[in-house]
Design brief:
single chain, alpha/beta, eight-stranded mixed β-sheet, three-stranded antiparallel β-sheet, 18 helices
Length: 513
C-alpha cells in the first residue's frame, strides 16, 4: 500500500494492512454456499460462519473479515454478508468492538450448539476399531517421556540436549549458505531417491573415518534419524517369524520396530562387558547391538566378545545391526572402534546419527552397509518418505565441511565430561548404594536395592521437581526389574545436578521408610 506521493504508509497503516492480511487468511476456512438451495444466502452464510466459530475454524483473537472482504472472497453481495453478521450479533455469537470490527463472543462460545440443531453432533461416529489394524507390539512396555520436562528444576532426562549448547550461529550460517548458489539446487530439488552428494562425501571423508570405518558413497544411505534406519531394515531384511537377538535390557523402541515387522525377539543378557553371546547363534537371523555404549547401561562391548560375535554370525549366516549409540562421548580411556571397522564385518549394518548430540529434533542420521542392501533400502525409502529434506542435508554437509561439526563435538564432550564427573560424585555421596558408572554416554544407569520401585520413585521424584526415567521398560520382563532407573545429564544445567541428586536422595529415603 503506497500513497499517492510514493511514500511508505505510516506505522498505523502498516499495522492495519497486516490485520487485514490476517483476516483475509481467516476467510479461507472452507465455507460452502449453495446458490441452488431454497435457503436464503445470508442464512447459509450465517450457519456456515456459526459452525466455523463453534468448531474452532476461526481464530477468536482476530476480528472477523470485513463485509467487503468476505463478500469479495465468496462472490456475494455486501448486503448478504451484513445480514449474516447481524443475525450472528443478534444471537450473541459475535460482538462489535469499536473501530476494530466484529469478534467472536468468547462468553457465548462455551456450550454453544450449531444452528442446524446439532446435526453435526448427531452425525454417525466412525468405529475406527473396525478399520485400524492390530498392533503386533500391543502390550509391550514403552519408553515414556515427561513432555514438559523443561519446566522442572531438575530434568535428568535422556535423549535431550541443553539448548544453550546448540551451535546456533554455525547452524544458521549453514542454513543460509545452503540457500545460495551453488548449493541452492541441492536444497530445493526433488532428489527422488538420491542423497545429497556433498553430505555423503563429508560422511565418507570426515565422519566415518573417526569411527574407523571406510566406506564409499554407494555404501551410505541418509535417514531421518537412526529410528528410520531401523524401520527400513525391519521391513527389508526381516520376515514374519525372523528371530532377532536383542540386548536385555535394551533399546525398547527397536524392539517395537522389529515386532511390528513380525519378528520374534530373543532377549540376551548384558553384563559389565556388554552383551553375553550365546554359545551358538543358530536360529537367530539378526542380532541388534549397541556395542559402543550399550543402551541403556552405557557399558562397552569387550573386544573379545566383538570378535566372537562376528565369527558366530558368519557361522550362522546371521546379520548384525550396530547402533552406534552415543559413541562420541567417552570420558576416560580411548574410544573403541566401531564393530563395522573390524575385519570380517561385512555382515554388520551400521547405524549412526548426526543429530543425537547436536539436536535430536533435526532428525538426521545415516546407515552404512553393503552396496546391494543400500540400493534396496534406498528404493524402500523412496516409497515411504522419498528423501530427507535437501535443505537439511546440504546445511549439515556445510556444517561438517566448515569444521564446526567437529568443534561442536569436542566442546560438547568437554561439557558432558564435567557434568558426568559432578553427577557421579554426587551420586556416590548421596545414594545409599555404590554407583559404578561406565565412563561414557550421556546418562547413568542405576540399579537400586531390592524393593525399590522405579515406577513409584519416578512419580514421587516428579512431584519433588526431579525428572528421572524408569528402567523397567527396557527389560523383557519389566516386573522383575523394577529397581532400575536412568539419569540423563545432557539437558540439565551443571549447577543443578548436585541439588537435584540431593532432592532425589530425599525421595529415595522417604520411600525406604
Amino acid at each position: 500500500m503506497i500513497s499517492a506521493g510514493g511514500r511508505e504508509p505510516d506505522r498505523q497503516a502498516r499495522a492495519q494492512a497486516q490485520v487485514s492480511a490476517v483476516a483475509s487468511a481467516v476467510v479461507r476456512t472452507p465455507i460452502s454456499i449453495n446458490e441452488d438451495s431454497t435457503a436464503p444466502l445470508y442464512r447459509q452464510l450465517r450457519e456456515a460462519l456459526e459452525h466455523q466459530i463453534i468448531s474452532g475454524g476461526l481464530n477468536p483473537e482476530l476480528p472477523l473479515p470485513s463485509s467487503r472482504e468476505l463478500a469479495r472472497e465468496l462472490g456475494l453481495s455486501r448486503n448478504t454478508v451484513n445480514a449474516a453478521y447481524q443475525e450472528l450479533q443478534a444471537q450473541g455469537i459475535i460482538e462489535p468492538h469499536a473501530r476494530r470490527g466484529f469478534f467472536v463472543n468468547l462468553q457465548m462460545l462455551q456450550g454453544a450448539a450449531p444452528a442446524d440443531g446439532g446435526t453435526a453432533a448427531r452425525a454417525e461416529k466412525v468405529d475406527w476399531s473396525r478399520h485400524l489394524g492390530r498392533r503386533l507390539d500391543a502390550g509391550m512396555p514403552e519408553i515414556t517421556k515427561v513432555r514438559d520436562w523443561v519446566s522442572y528444576p531438575y530434568p535428568f532426562v535422556a535423549g535431550q540436549v541443553d539448548e544453550k549448547d546448540f551451535p546456533r550461529l554455525g547452524w544458521s550460517k549453514a542454513l543460509r549458505d545452503a540457500l545460495d548458489p551453488p548449493h541452492l539446487h541441492y536444497s530445493l530439488r526433488d532428489g527422488v531417491d538420491e542423497d545429497d552428494p556433498l553430505l555423503v562425501r563429508m560422511l565418507c571423508q570426515q565422519v566415518l573415518p573417526a569411527r574407523g570405518i571406510e566406506a564409499a558413497p554407494e555404501n551410505v544411505l541418509i535417514t531421518s534419524g537412526s529410528q528410520q534406519g531401523l524401520d527400513l531394515l525391519a521391513h527389508t531384511i526381516m520376515e514374519p517369524g525372523t528371530v532377532v537377538g536383542v540386548e536385555d535390557p535394551g533399546y525398547t523402541d527397536a524392539r517395537h520396530t522389529f515386532v511390528r515387522a513380525g519378528a520374534q525377539l530373543r532377549p540376551l543378557p548384558v553384563d559389565d562387558a556388554g552383551l553375553v553371546p550365546p554359545e551358538r547363534l543358530d536360529g537367530i537371523g539378526l542380532l541388534y547391538l549397541t556395542p559402543s555404549h550399550h543402551s541403556p547401561t552405557n557399558v562397552t562391548l569387550s573386544g573379545a566378545r566383538r570378535h566372537q560375535i562376528l565369527a558366530d554370525a558368519r557361522a550362522a549366516d546371521a546379520l548384525i545391526i550396530e547402533d552406534d549409540y552415543d559413541s562420541e562421548f567417552r570420558y576416560r580411556g580411548k574410544p573403541t572402534p566401531a564393530l563395522k571397522a573390524l575385519p570380517n564385518s561385512e555382515r554388520v549394518i551400521y547405524l549412526g546419527s548426526f543429530t543425537k548430540f547436536l539436536a535430536p529434533g533435526l532428525r538426521l542420521g545415516y546407515l552404512v552397509a553393503d552396496a546391494e542392501l543400500v540400493a534396496e533400502l534406498r528404493n524402500q525409502r523412496r516409497y515411504r518418505l522419498r528423501h530427507i529434506s535437501g535443505h537439511l542435508q546440504r546445511a549439515m554437509a556445510l556444517l561438517i565441511e566448515s569444521g564446526q561439526y567437529r568443534r561442536t563435538i569436542r566442546r560438547r564432550r568437554t561439557q558432558l565430561q564435567r557434568k558426568w564427573t559432578v553427577l557421579t560424585e554426587a551420586l556416590d555421596e548421596v545414594l545409599p548404594w555404590n554407583v559404578n558408572a561406565p565412563p561414557g554416554g550421556v546418562s547413568i544407569w542405576l540399579r537400586g536395592p531390592a524393593g525399590l520401585d522405579c515406577v513409584r520413585l519416578a512419580e514421587k521424584a516428579l512431584e519433588a521437581g526431579v525428572v528421572i526415567e524408569r528402567g523397567d521398560v527396557f527389560f523383557a520382563d519389566p516386573l522383575a526389574n523394577r529397581e532400575c532407573f536412568r539419569l540423563g545429564f545432557a539437558a540439565i544445567d551443571i549447577a543443578d545436578i548436585r541439588p537435584g541428586v540431593e532432592r532425589l536422595g530425599k525421595v529415595i529415603a522417604e520411600l525406604a521408610d
